[in-house]
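[step 3/7] inverse_fold.run input=structure_tokens len=104
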């Protein structure tokens, strides 16, 4: 722990050498989930995932699609609420079933 030593400025007021610490509270994160899709082709699901969430690589999109296919639900991305809602609604608008939930 740093020791704070007051010093005197020319005007006589005490000045602390250490800047006050700022505590940043992280905003809550949300999981965007893809639900199993018995209607659309695997290729369509992968292509759509990559269009909607550009940071997903082809391998990431395939992993999400396979996870949803094999377990019923796949984790697409974890992010702040605004992009999570955007991704979820955009996936829905393209015919995929998606939801969001708070990260644990």
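[step 3/7] decode complete -> sequence:
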């Amino acid at each position: 722990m740093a020791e704070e030593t007051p010093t005197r400025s020319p005007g006589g007021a005490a000045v602390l050498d250490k800047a006050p610490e700022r505590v940043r509270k992280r905003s809550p994160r949300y999981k965007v989930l893809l639900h199993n899709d018995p209607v659309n082709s695997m290729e369509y699901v992968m292509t759509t995932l990559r269009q909607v969430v550009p940071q997903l690589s082809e391998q990431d999109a395939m992993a999400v699609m396979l996870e949803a296919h094999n377990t019923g639900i796949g984790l697409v991305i974890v992010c702040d609420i605004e992009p999570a809602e955007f991704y979820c609604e955009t996936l829905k608008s393209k015919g995929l079933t998606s939801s969001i939930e708070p990260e644990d």
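[step 4/7] annotate
The helical segments are 42-52, 58-71, 81-93.
The mean pLDDT is 87.
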